[in-house]
Amino acid sequence: MFSDVAVITDHEGYPTLMFRAANRRRNRIVEAEVSVSVVMDQVSREGHRMRTFRDLPVTRGRTPLFILSWQVMHRIDEASPLFGETAQSLAAQFAEIIVVMRGLDETFSSTIHARASYLPDEIVWNRRLVDIFSRDDTGRRVIDFTHFHAVE
User: With a threshold of 0.90, does the pTM exceed it?
Assistant: First the structure.
């Protein structure tokens, strides 16, 4: 499951694209990997308009064990294809953030895939994803999925 929206908010002094993924299966996913790209219309030096795919490197692209949730983050610095973009410029370029996640289902030993995408109107600027973690009476971490898609 992926969050309904992505956010762009400051994190560690940089604007950062963030969205969340969760494992809603009753089993673990091992060696999970995520790749994030942006596809958008761009005009070449020769004046030709074309759709281009650009990778958006994430701060953590793999996890050995995906059990609960994963907040995927891309730092928007000078090297990022999103550097200098705004909600309006992304909409004008018909941009779309493409997310592909894969891993190995531990129970069935089969590779699983999941895909999500975020259009410019599904990216919320200058807001944060609501914290979904808390602790129960025994001190064990639990996720409140009722706030999984919420922003503050």
Answer: yes
